[in-house]
Amino acid sequence: YKSSWCPNRQDSHDSKACLFAHHMRDFRRPPEIFKYSPEDCPTLANSRGQDAGWESCPQGLFCSKCHTTVERLYHPDKYKRIYCDRSRCNKSDICAFFHSKPERESALKQC
């Protein structure tokens, strides 16, 4: 999810519902290639609430911490580990949070 660039970036479609990345802020390094923990990089603290680009970190893409919210929420150690508190979640399968016990158990088996 969001670990490769959208082949249809020029088309107008809902980028939030798209499985591919459209901006650096929603790009996620594939955790099986880039080993990083689901904790925020210290450079995030200096970015005033914005996701810090890798260019602001001395380690760049090889940083051992997360640089975007998408990286943190969809990291295998975090994905579907917390119950979704939205009464009507419209994200369906792409929601980072679980909605039922079977959904959580299925995600745990995949990660």
UniProtKB/TrEMBL annotation:
The GO terms this record gives for MF are: zinc ion binding
**Keyword set for this entry?**
Metal-binding, Zinc, Zinc-finger
InterPro entries listed in its UniProt record: Unkempt-like (IPR045234)
Q: Cross-referenced PANTHER family, in alphabetical order?
A: RING FINGER PROTEIN UNKEMPT (PTHR14493:SF50), UNKEMPT FAMILY MEMBER (PTHR14493)
Report what the protein is called. Uncharacterized protein
Q: Write down the species.
A: Strombidium rassoulzadegani
